[in-house]
């Protein structure tokens, strides 16, 4: 008998808690719930203000829980291709040093994203590809400075 009274009391409490939203349509109830959630997320009183908020990025140094053997190979086991490099070397000497570094680390080819077009790209071809034709792949850019992207002949002009 006592268990039955407890159950009835719990059901009555649940019904009383739901009474404020019974008169709302489902979309109104959802909107009310969404507003409560948004208030909770944006309210400054609900934000975490613990010691982790005081850690600066420069001081953040998490320790790994991974337990594995550590090794630092000096050279790749198989020839590697670096698929996204920007041409930072500007002289033949700098490029020769770059190729020497590639040899030391096992990088076979570098793909250079130059963004250059016209004479600028031709200069990079002379600088990188003429002395090292198998070590670099150069991607050019498109010069669209004097073109209207809305013009119907834009594709033909930009690729000319």
Describe this structure in words.
The chain is of the alpha/beta class. The protein folds into two domains: 2-43; 72-160, no CATH class. The protein has five helices and three strands. It has helices at 2-22, 26-42, 92-105, 119-129, 154-158, and strands at 80-85, 107-113, 136-139. It has a three-stranded parallel β-sheet with strand order 1-2-3. The longest helix is centred in the first third of the chain and has 21 residues, at 2-22. The chain is flat and about 60 Å long.
- The domain tally reads 2
Q: What general outline do the C-alpha atoms trace? A: flat
Q: Report mean pLDDT, rounded to a whole number.
A: 80
Write the H/E string, N to C.
HHEHEHEH
Distance between the termini: 91 Å
Structural class: alpha/beta
- Strand coverage percent: 5-15%
Rg of Cα set: 32 Å
Summarize the structure.
By secondary structure, this protein is of the alpha/beta class.
Write the layout of secondary structure elements.
Elements: H1 2-22, H2 26-42, E1 80-85, H3 92-105, E2 107-113, H4 119-129, E3 136-139, H5 154-158
Parallel strand pairs: 1-2, 2-3
Defining traits:
alpha/beta, 2 domains, 3-stranded parallel β-sheet
């Amino acid at each position: 008998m006592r268990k039955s009274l407890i159950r009835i009391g719990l059901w009555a409490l649940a019904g009383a808690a739901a009474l404020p939203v019974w008169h709302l349509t489902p979309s109104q109830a959802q909107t009310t719930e969404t507003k409560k959630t948004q208030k909770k997320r944006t309210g400054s009183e609900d934000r975490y203000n613990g010691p982790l908020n005081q850690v600066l990025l420069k001081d953040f140094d998490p320790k790994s829980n991974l337990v594995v053997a550590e090794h630092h190979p000096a050279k790749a086991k198989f020839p590697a291709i670096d698929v996204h490099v920007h041409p930072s070397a500007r002289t033949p000497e700098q490029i020769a040093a770059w190729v020497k570094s590639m040899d030391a680390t096992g990088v076979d080819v570098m793909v250079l994203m130059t963004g250059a077009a016209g004479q600028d790209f031709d200069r990079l071809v002379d600088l990188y590809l003429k002395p090292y034709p198998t070590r670099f792949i150069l991607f050019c850019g498109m010069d669209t400075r004097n073109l209207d992207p809305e013009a119907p002949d834009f594709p033909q002009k930009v690729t000319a």
